Batch of 3 targets.
Target 1
Amino acid sequence: MKIMKQIVPMAMAAVLAFGATGCGTTASSSTTTADGKVEIEYWHINSESFAGPTVTDIVKRFNESQDEIVVKEKYIGEYQSIMQNLQADAAVGTSPDLVQIGWSYKEYFGNNFAYTDPNELFAEYGTEETKNFIDDTYAESVQALAVLDSGEMLGMPYGMSIPMLFLNTDIFAEAGIAVEDLVTWWDVDAAARTIAENTDKYGLYIGESNYVWEMQQLIESNGARYITDGICSIYSPESVEAMELYAGLVHDGSALHVVIEEGRQAYLAGEVGIYMDSVAYTNITTTTTDFTEIMVAPGWEDEELQLPIGGNFLAVTSSTDEKKAATAEFLTWMLDAENMLQWNGVTGYIPPIKSAVGSEFMAENPVIQMAYDNLDSAVPWAAFPGNNGLQAEQILIAMRDEILSSGTPSEEAMKKAQEEINKMY
Amino acid sequence: MVLYPILFAMDNAMKTDQQVYAGLTGWLSNGISLHNYIDIYERVPLLRIIWNTFAISSINTFLTMLVSFLASYVLVYYRFKGSDKIVGLFVWSMFIPFTVTIIPHYLIVSKMQLVNTWMGVVIPQIFSGSAVFLLIQSMRNIPLSLIEVAKLENISDRKIMCHIVLPLVKPQLIATSIWFFALTWNDFIWPNRILKDTTSYTLPLILQSFISGEGGGGFTSAMAMSVITMIIPLILYLIFQKHIIETFTSAGIK
Amino acid sequence: MELNQREKIKSILFLSPAIICFVVFLLIPMLYTVYLSFFDWNMIRPEMDFVGLDNYIKIFTDETTYKVLRNTFSYIGIILITNFCIPFVFAFVCKFVLHKFANFYKTTMFMPGFISLIVGSVIFTWILNPIVGPVALFLKEFGVKMPVWSTTEGLVIVVISLITSWKSFGYNFIMLYSAVSGVSGEVIEAAQLDNIPLRKIFLQIVAPMTGFTSFYMFVMTIIQGLTYVISPIDVLTKGGPNYGSSNIVYAAYFKAFYMFDTGGAAAMAVITLVIFGFGLFLLNEVVGKLVYYEN
């Protein structure tokens, strides 16, 4: 103990001195590194288990391929964490250069942050070859996803996902149902009930994330619309019908109503027959289980299928000319087919670029091909305009739980939610 | 019941996801496999992160203890007009919910250009009402007569502080330090605000990246990460157990 | 006690770091938060719009506020039972009835105190998974189907409170054990000789005689409980279902970091502070009188 008495304070003092010099930390406020390269920052949501290493690789190879620009990539968290950090940075006047913005934050981002329209970016900072980069790389319909009501383009679609159904073929076999039987939500309803009756498993689980994306697919495919002419129009006979189907299954025990982590765990452990979630889950489900078959989320009988696009777009938030030019160049690297598809292969997101069509990649990834084929039915993630968009989404989430947990009739809950949302406008 | 979650995590950290989902239960049924740990080591700057966590915890603990010790000494032995009020104020400050201070803390730290640094995490936490409270309690347990005798013999204040009081409260000081060390080690919300990239993360932050995320997290990797995060504070606890329990026990005897 | 000049300087010197930190990092932020609560801001826009009491009005006219408030009281109630009453009784039992196990319990139960709640929440998400978690499977053996607590109002609060009690039980137990130990053994023995039932001994002798510590633990349990609860809520339910697991502390946190409503979050935080302060004051009055009379 005596020796401890002397060593400990000394060690403490040393660590303290170390810390006081801010040693071992990185301050990200310089534009150029010591050797005159331009440094840009790229924020993303690719965690260790979700293509993080892939991003690191793409960035590393870019840095090695030239000596003017150094890209620093940072994993920030989920889309919501990215918004938080953007906001925190803005409060003190800094910003990254390239950011993945979740589609649900499109309106909020567009209204509150400074960004550069990609068309302008390449027109001004692009090289001869890349002046028309956006039109060269993206189909019109895909570009349209990232355009605000006012006509400005916010960024470049990067990660695109649509809702899919993951099916447990073992359970289907046990319940005596064929996968091909599932064509509409009515079929899903019947299948779920059959599964619940004939086996001791759950028939259906619709992912309940902290977004209303899954619900959007269900309801809007039946003809309802979250937003019409800028105000909430969720209360309609079609949406009530759709919701009632869902609620009915939950209330009689055929469908599961749990938080998303628990639901996923349940599916992976083989307790759920049909699981609805993003195509980004393809890899996890197919590597962890051997009973999974995947199909695109279905529509209803007479109405048009609506597949809301999830994922993210890339926004350019650089503040200086130098950085904008550097970012433009990095973008040409990122959206180059080879690098893009490398990312898509691991994430499961649908490639947004024209050059992916008919490529070998698509042939090797049938699920993504399947999703891609359905892009005609793709619609933007419903984003309520203005600053109240986030609040509106929360109201809808609460509505969903009120219907499913408390048993409030869909009619009543949806009407109330619509009134509440429109009150804010 | 208390130990179950700990053992659970350790057990699952040694399996693979497929096995877990296929229903492989049973303690250590896959044998002792360190593949998850190796995996983590390769994917994230693990040693760096552990170092960050260790450094931040140490610095914070040291500074907090220093500040609190000085303050408690004065408040216990130099009773002046209003010193009781200050004690009350400090104790009362323990009851302030963090939501009231977190936003301004962030603004202050960023104005000081300390975002993404260790000091940025540490500085707003230096003052701790509970540290002061615990130290005051332990100092009050020292018989006043001892101090008075020392004063009569004209021993300098500095000597009294360092050679009489300090050794006598050492066990409590150590115990409180370990407690704070663990608290800082496990802190998530505040470091999450301040530390920006993976090389500056602390363990709870990197753990988060294994759990949440768009593509879902790997369950067994998350378990392995949890074990790594838990281990050091637990080891410290087991070593200093006796001191720790004694300190908190005597703090309770008013 | 009058201080001489040198002592005065010393006391100022030694106290100053603590006081400076207190003022800069506690007092000023608190005041700034109050200031923020009168604006509509999201930390990004350079202009902050002064809206006066608007944020407060919005909070008080929002239905969910009342639900959140009710939840807060539910949380407090349950947390007090699991983290205060039960450890207290247990401490009493350990001290006066079952002497042998006290040390063992103290050691093992304190362990979770050193583990991050994020770690705990993640592990518990799996353990308490109502369909495939070990607890569910165990119950299945007995034919009991585990309720889906994460989306059941009411139950969700209970389970989340239990998770935090896993972490705090040990600490509270130790503190209360020591408080109980402070009660002189003779009084207990005398009471036992008089054939007073154990229950009464606990309630009417031991509990009041532990005075200050019990009070401190009572308040700490509430405050710590509400703060600890934030982690599991954030990991598991984000306040759902339908705000069923949210409480005033989480609501302020959510408003600030998910809704980016800085002004609203500040208002919520101020309201929380006021409620806590008022509660503390009330408690002080009530308990103060009780303790006084017992002596």
Target 2
Amino acid sequence: MDNLSTFINRSVSRRKFLAGVGAGAGAVAALNLAGCSSSPAKTTTTSAPTDADVLNFALNLEYLEAQFYLYAATGSGLEASDTTAGSASPYQTVGTVTLGDAAAVPGLTPAQQEILNEIAYEEQEHVRFLRSALGAAAVPMPDIDLSFFGPLAVAATITTAATGAGSFNPFSSFDYFLVGGFIFEDVGVTAYSGAASLISPAGVAAGYLTAAAGILAVEAYHAGYIRTSLTGRAIAAGSAAAYPYLAAANLVEDLRATLSVGDGAAPSTTGSVETLLTLPPDTTPASSTTASSIVAASPTTAVGFARTVNQVLHIVYGSATVGASSGGFFPSGMNSIFATTTA
Amino acid sequence: MANQETQVLDEIIAANRRKMLTLGVASLAGLAVAGLGVPLAKAATSYTDSDILNFALNLEYLEANFYYLAAFGTTIDVANAASTAAGALQITLSGTVGTAGSVTGGSQVPFTTIPVASYAIEVAVEEGKHVQLLLSALGSSAVAQPAINLGTSFQTLATAAGIPGGAAFSPYASDDDFLVGAYVFEDVGVTAYHGAASLLTVPANLVTAAGILAVEAYHAGLIRTTINYLDPTGASIGGYTNLISTLRASLSMAGLLGVAPGPYDANPDDYGLADFSVSLAGAANVTATRLTDADPTNVIAFARNTTQVLNIVTGGGAVNGTTQVSPAVGVFFPAGMNAGPNGFK
């Protein structure tokens, strides 16, 4: 049987993946593996973004999160009426979802099912809220590729040793799902943190900042849930080896760091805005002196991280290349003035 | 004079933001315009970023001391073997504005499970860093640590919430009881930073506040997830969360002083872990947990203004009918919070 790690070595190296489209044929091959098709570069603008631009950037991310969680919880995605274009939006084509393995996660306990239902509902309502706030300016759902988890796992070097038999599939079990959710949640938190200061004084007065901060908090609740579950299940399993999903999540963090820091020519984690999960040692609890790592935040000030729109795009496009305008979870790019990375 | 004009402008902005917050931050552009025409009761008072950050510092003193005591058995200003081993900061209480007080009550929890012990240590370390950060940022403007009651205050609140055996409740007795104690604080921290965000005028302060808001929400998610895992049916500590949230919502609504909550601040503005029914991908009546404390319609976390927060942490000390009481005194803050001349207390 074909082993995933040999597959990685044979067909696509992590380095080439990280190099992205700008670096040549190898990288293009990697992105094609991700199910991407070439698409015209989105136009960029050098003028200051409007509040609608900022909210629409968030809406693109919420479309992605909502589709992931809804499929995981129910096997169905957003209702068509939640994906349409606002009448004044320059983007009028409603995208499609490439499903890949997307399906309701099997084998959930009732308690686990209710948790998936909650997160799916909350992301669905974020889509609806942003669409409502934007009104005619709301962008439609862009093309979304939920089959990108496989190539992403390859790029992160999540091997069969980390996740058991078969390729990485976040829709195949509760533990795989947690790692899948992990890909998004800290990013959502940092994206809203980064976007908060882009909102204009008029937007602050209009309540946009309060809304964004409130969604930021919800994303952090979700991130807290995902990280607590991964950590708690690893503790219950007794060791990192007995619960490889913790290590898999940390590989995702490593990949996010290399994607969003610097250019693909020199992958680096310097300046990373990631906090790796840790497994507290199995000691007598009352004498334990080891902290968990549930919170992703600065180690010196315990203030949560922020990411720029470019850093967020590098992650969801699966490309560190400056100038990338599509890829990864967004095979045709975001419907956003920010769609092309500029740094 | 440009400086004077700028200052006047700042005051107008600050006053309007405060008015909006009092109204529950009514949404969208039209309302902001309408707000300009509303006579402002406190238009002469200017709130600076320092006033707002000092309000946050009072709350961080409270939270940090609770977690330090639970995790290490010591207050934030005194190091011991446990706090040192965990790498927790020993805080020099450098704030001098207002009246310094002492911390009463609290003791190290005899943890029996690794997750809860390690979570307590993590949160303690992080809340300590928040105190240190705010003290550093505020410098000579920082308020002193006020008197803080972390003992009998929990019994008062537990009784008011209707928790069985509340008169003898101690958050330091067991892993479960600690989680209930932590639950009292975390969602409140989220709402307080959320409410403060739009009051801040210095962009760097907003970024920092947003970052701390995120951390408080991570903590809240951690606590709610763990309680839900230990008591998924709500028979014990899961059920207590509903009682506590109901009490907090009641105190918070009183803090609105008769003004109707805005669109992002529905009544109630707090939910425990009890399941709720949602419509999902077109299917109605799907059961969901409530690991997120947010408005069920827009799923935006709640924001509270300073009076609402004060009324919660003082157990109703900030409100008398439809009149604000200042300083608010009671429960966790037996002598009230510390603030500068125009600050919130």
Target 3
Amino acid sequence: MKVTVDAVEVEVEEGTTMLEAARAAGRYVPTLCFDERMAPFGACRVCMVGVEGNDAPLASCTTPCSDGQQIHTDDETARRIATATVELVLSELPAEPEEHTELAEVARALEVGEPRWQGVQHEPKHDARHPYLAFQHELCISCGRCVRACDEVQGAFALTATGRGFHSNVTAGLDSGFTDSTCVTCGACADTCPTDAITEHLLLDLVGDPAKDGGPQ
Amino acid sequence: MSTRFDQSTTTTCGYCGVGCRLEAHRVDGSVRSISPAMDGPANKGHTCVKGRFAHQFARSRDRLTAPLVRENDGFRLASWDEAIGRITEAFNKIKAEHGPDAIAGLASSRGTNEDCYAMQRLMRAAVGTHNIDNCSRVCHSPTSFAMRSSLGLSGATGSFDDFEAADVALLVGVNPTQGHPVVGARIKQAAINGLKLITADPRRIELSDYGELHLPMRPGTNAALLNGLAHVVIRDGMVDSAFVDARTEGFDATAELVEAYTPDAVEGITGIPAADIERAAHLYGEAENACISWGLGVTEHLYGSEVVQLICNLALMTGNIARPGAALLPLRGQNNVQGSSDHAALPDTWTDYRPVTDDAVTSSFEERWGVKLKRERGMTIPEMFDAAVEGSLKAMYIFGEDVAQTDPDTAHVEKALDSLDFLVCQDIFDTETSKHADVILPASSFLEKTGTFTNAERRLQMVTPAADPPGSAKTDLEIICMVSKALGHDMGYESSADVMDEVAEMTPRYAGISHDRIGRTGLQWPVAKDGTDTPILYTERFEREGGLARFAALPYKPPGDAADDEFPLILVTGRRLEHYNAGTMTRRTENLSLLPSDTLEVNPVDAERIGVKAGEEVTVRSRVGEIRLPADVTERIEPGHVFTAFHFPEVRTNLLVGQSADVNTSCPEYKVVAVSVESVRSPGERPQPAELVTA
């Protein structure tokens, strides 16, 4: 079937998502919770697009295309929702995300400036018990990518989403750290994390390692 | 995209045979981080604890950075000229006095295809002997032998993608989540998504927990199990007669042979309940598309090469071959086990396994290199050690292999190394083997060289340097070319691409391979002159004379070692996730803090009988040696069996393994060693033969 993304017509297979169609058409759609290695999740609401005939924007990563659809990645409402979402996410972080992170990239692409809302920010909480993997819990935005990478790419089932609302975060095992969980140190969580909430000590060494200084022990 | 790195290079992992494509990130001249390449065909954006994290070894302070030559009882630093001068002097003297066959070389399954091809050319053209072998001798040589004999070619018939396309997969003697973690993860995901998995292994492996059925056979009884499965497939009418008639030969003899292998009879031999054998045969036989995968639990036996032929039988009689999802997928151990053998680092074959006894092929190499070559095969690794002890082999050039740790019967190997007049080791670290060397040449790791590895899918992939070799160390190819030139045979290669061009020119099945064409996503051989590669083998014909695959009617025969009153337990050895083979690399990384030492897995029933608790030290004694290590009491291992790995030099597991080896390929029988296990604290503690327990 055929769909049009920002006036670019693309031929797609049944079941193709709007995000896949947009990427096939060479159009940029910002995403935070999406990773092509895992099943679409639809949690972050950053990949919103406008669809002709639809009143409200749709999450492109979880919505399948139908024939003849006209999709707009630059839909004004969609962009406004995405930008505000990223702005809210940033407002909870104690510091700006590192430049190389996907979150920083998306914020740049959406031109999110200093957050307008000044609410509570996460307190730094680091875990440096594992020889390679480091937690910086205050950077967790609960996108669920690490948990899904652990389940759907590796199959170690070591990570779990914890807490509710502002206290949502991620933990290894029964809050026992990577080494005492079923973690097999494949690194898929660090690889997919869009904020460095899970990263490697070796990489933190390159920018100074806060996790090593402020571990819980 | 902004980055923290000075440079990122896409290359291919140098650990196991999966062939993950990696991005190696460089800061200040060294590799500081590795992440998965999203377009890697085998890893699809994933890595494991070895490929991703265990790269610190490359920056280790004890890397060899300059040549070393023996002086008195130790070594001293030397220039490249002096080191190579010593080699040429010794080799020329030995050649003059004893002939070229008094010298032997080992290429490395860790090296690139180009390194291995150059190494065999060095031995054949510069030294003048076919005494060249590589470490696939001690792991998958039985696979290579059997697949060539049954199907025609030495390689997997398909790709890892087949696990996702299959309905059923049978894993025999392989533990992918530990030994081949990225494929292990792919199989686990496939199982979660509906692939019906049958695991057959003396240990209950992690994937057994995700499978339909686990078949814990007694070590060394694989042949009985496979003939039993064939029996049920035939008895219950699951044979694909159209396929058998059109594309195979020898079915009737096999059918006749397996008649005796009733599930009850097989239960008697293997210990697997007859009902489970029936169920496994039906799962496999009734699948639309089924794969079989195996590892060293099949090959490292007295009849390993025969069991691989029995695996081929099962696939052939059900027509489960040559389609997506229907494949035979041996999981090759090292990064380049496939390629080192493909590229002629074997005593009996040229590239693409063409025999040295074939006059036309050998003539073509004589012509290409301007030398005279014999038509008789050279020595295999075990034959080399025997010849050294016996006195007819005088010198060895060992590149990238720690035979004194990894080969069986360590005491015999060390005696062989000590018997040599001259030993060259080319490696990145001092090893147990290099302690016996006369000259040690400092080489390069996979992060520092250019070339290709061939993974377990027959896929050649580019290795691209992300850092420079340390100090005055050189790439393996440079060193081999220098030594060859000093011996009077200038190979004339300017780059590793030149080596591959020569391979393509000399090898019809590899005719279209070049570094340019390999590109980012690789080529699966055979590769036609126009560059078309072959993801699935045998879609039209089998690569044997007449184009038919061959059934092999082979009975079960007992393994070379058996438990008795003195040695009542069977030791099985294998890999652990955190470490890699001799541990030369992984023990120099933080992986050591993830797994600092080895243990002996003992079933609770045996532990109680022996009187040992978890964590307590035990002595393990076999007919040839003795080691000590702590016990791990676990139900993963069946009663009557014990398990340990071979990653730690302080344990030296291979002191226990004897000389028993595969009947066709002399691959050692690492998987069946009768042992006795005693608590070191037990009252009847036996005095230790001290010379065998070297720390």
